[in-house]
Design a protein that fits this description.
Length: 328
């Protein structure tokens, strides 16, 4: 039997350093999936995944401008970045370039395009495979599926539709950094003021949102609902689709989806609905769809099919397994 290949991981996402990262996306123990085992902190992995990583080693020492150097908080940030760079230098030196993978998963918003391009350029120095959900990535491609629905893989794979007692939910946030974020918040305000039957969840929501706040388990905001608003931060290209859609379907919701065309290529017809716009027309559409449960009942078979595609085909672990098989 061929030896399982160990896949390590580095990420610049704050707090993403758990040794059991991604273990919830496999029915097997210890992060095993077919020919791989993902062990994020493995000291000598066979492959290394750089997951939204941007702390590449550099011959230019990191330093602070003089007007920031006196601030203790800035010094602490600089120290953390130096530590990340040194850790990356050590990890990258252990794995051949052709076995080092860079996957970017941020939307190519106008405000950050140049920053994203710089990340790709840095990644190409260290990684044999560099991909992201936009046309200027070295390898433009969809993001392999990561989900945040809190039930286990086995539960998700086997569970029938859970008891549905509520009409529609939306898990969002109060972030307003970009124009797309602000447009989404304006649409949320419109929905709230329309007195639509909608339960809103998420961190940092403004008081006027009348939301339930941040949740520890996404299942609580998905499983009891027939419909779920899945609204991307970006909808302008053919590559970007995020966990907002995967989570909604894994909760057996019928997503009312606002995003690009990638979802149409990845999921079966009828497994989600298209929100036409984030304005009065979109509000009217949501109101019409959620006024009955007909659309959810009609979509049940397509939702079931989509869930299996997400769990078994689009799953990041499956993507890694196929990548490794081509290299070994």
């Amino acid at each position: 039997m061929t030896k399982r290949q160990i896949v390590g991981m580095l990420s610049s996402y704050p707090g993403l350093s758990q040794g059991d990262w991604m273990w919830n996306q496999t029915p097997h123990g210890l992060g095993k999936w077919q020919n791989i085992q993902i062990l994020a902190n493995a000291p000598q992995p066979d492959f290394l995944l750089l997951y939204n990583f941007n702390r590449f080693p550099s011959d230019v020492p990191l330093s602070l401008p003089w007007w920031k150097a006196w601030r203790r908080s800035e010094q602490q940030v600089l120290r953390r970045r130096r530590e990340q760079q040194e850790k990356a230098r050590s990890r990258l030196s252990q794995v051949p370039k052709e076995r080092t993978i860079f996957l970017f998963r941020e939307p190519p918003l106008e405000e950050v395009i140049e920053k994203n391009k710089a990340s790709y350029g840095a990644a190409e120095q260290f990684c044999g495979y560099v991909s992201g959900p936009d046309d200027f990535a070295p390898v433009p491609d969809y993001m392999p599926a990561i989900w945040y629905h809190s039930d286990s893989f086995r539960a998700l794979n086997e569970m029938p539709p859970p008891p549905k007692t509520r009409r529609c939910s939306w898990i969002t946030s109060g972030i307003s950094r970009t124009e797309n974020h602000r447009r989404r918040l304006a649409f949320l305000r419109m929905l709230v003021e329309s007195e639509l039957e909608l339960d809103v969840y998420g961190r940092g929501l403004p008081d006027w949102a009348q939301g339930y706040g941040e949740i520890s388990r996404k299942a609580h905001a998905l499983n009891p609902y027939y419909y779920n608003l899945a609204i991307e931060n970006y909808a302008e290209n053919d590559w970007y689709v995020s966990e907002k859609l995967w989570d909604s379907l894994l909760g057996w919701c019928l997503p009312i989806y606002y995003g690009g065309s990638a979802a149409d290529k990845l999921l079966p017809p009828g497994s989600f609905l298209r929100l036409p716009s984030q304005d009065e027309k979109g509000l009217a559409y949501i109101r019409e769809v959620t006024s009955t449960l007909d659309a959810w009942h009609e979509a049940k078979e397509a939702i079931a099919e989509a869930r299996q595609i997400i769990l078994h085909k689009l799953n990041l672990l499956n993507w890694l397994s196929e990548f490794v098989a081509e290299q070994v």
